[in-house]
Amino acid sequence: MDEKTTPEIRTFRLELSFDGTEYHGWQRQPNGITVQEVLEEKLCRLFNNTRIRVQGSSRTDSGVHALGMAASFQAPPSPYIPDWKVKKALNRLLPPSIKIREAVIAEPDFNARFSAHSKSYVYVINTGDLNPFTCRWSWHISDLTDLDGMREALKQIEGAHDFSTFTVELDPTKDHVRTIYKAEIKQFGPLVCIHIMGDGFLYKMVRSIVGAIADVGRGTLPSDAIGGMLAARNRSAARDTAPALGLFLLKVFYDDSWKTHELDKPPFWMM
């Protein structure tokens, strides 16, 4: 769009990364700073105190990180800021813990949450010495020894299942069936990365799954127990939920590119 052309409302799609350590999740909360709140405040400042509502692709929990969180917002006609300037201008305003990776014009009806086709999460476990540089972004487990058992257990969640056991969101009116396209483990030195990709995820679903898979790795849960836990469809069958600090929202997909998506390094090496 030419800067001299009469401006109109534009829909933007953002991709952003953030270190969730100091934030109370993505979504605005009455108490505690959230990523959405900070982003909306900076957009308001960028567009001359115009209130802007940002729609996130996911409602990440307190302490959870993101490499490729998606968000959308509608930019007001005035002041007109060229789309190619938005990313740089926002990054100048945002704190170092939040970075805009991409800011592009989207279709007018694009919605970061409801237009998404699939999402990819990765959970990082450090099996080596406690590392002061990665302790904010990984769960330290020194006695994780059975990776083959973990892989066998993880494969049992692939496909369409009722994940009622693996969520704390027990609204009986809500559909708890989700389809997992890929569930795998990649190891990079002492870092064990549990990579899960699917069409959607329930509240604390990934962390609940990781808690059970970690118990398999520690030898306190048989690798074939996951199928029975799924079949139970009851939260009482779950294990302890993994802590938030190791979880990353890796990527949100709006087309079929998830089919070629591969995890080739830990998420904090991709920044």
Folded structure, characterized:
- With 271 residues, the protein is an alpha+beta fold.
- It has 2 domains: 10-105, 2-Layer Sandwich (Alpha-Beta Plaits), CATH 3.30.70; 118-253, Alpha-Beta Plaits.
- 20% of the residues lie in helices and 27% in strands.
- It is built from 5 helices and 10 strands, in the order βαββαβββαβββααβ.
- It has helices at 35-46, 83-93, 147-155, 205-217, 225-232; strands spanning 10-18, 55-56, 65-75, 98-105, 118-126, 139-140, 159-162, 177-188, 191-198, 247-253.
- α3 crosses α4.
- It is globular.
- The two termini are 31 Å apart.
Q: Can you summarize the main beta sheet?
A: 10 strands, mixed
- Overall morphology: globular
Structural class: alpha+beta
| Percentage of residues in helical conformation | 10-25%
Mean pLDDT over the residues: 93
Strand tally is 10
CATH fold-level topology of the largest domain = Alpha-Beta Plaits
Question: According to CATH, what is the class of the largest domain?
Answer: Alpha Beta
Secondary-structure element series: EHEEHEEEHEEEHHE
Number of structurally distinct domains: 2
CATH architecture of the largest domain: 2-Layer Sandwich
* Tally of alpha and pi helices: 5
The CATH superfamily of the largest domain is Pseudouridine synthase I, catalytic domain, C-terminal subdomain
For the termini, the CA-CA separation is 31 Å
Strand content: 25-35%
Q: Which regions contain 5 or more consecutive residues with pLDDT less than 50?
A: none
| Rg for CA atoms | 20 Å
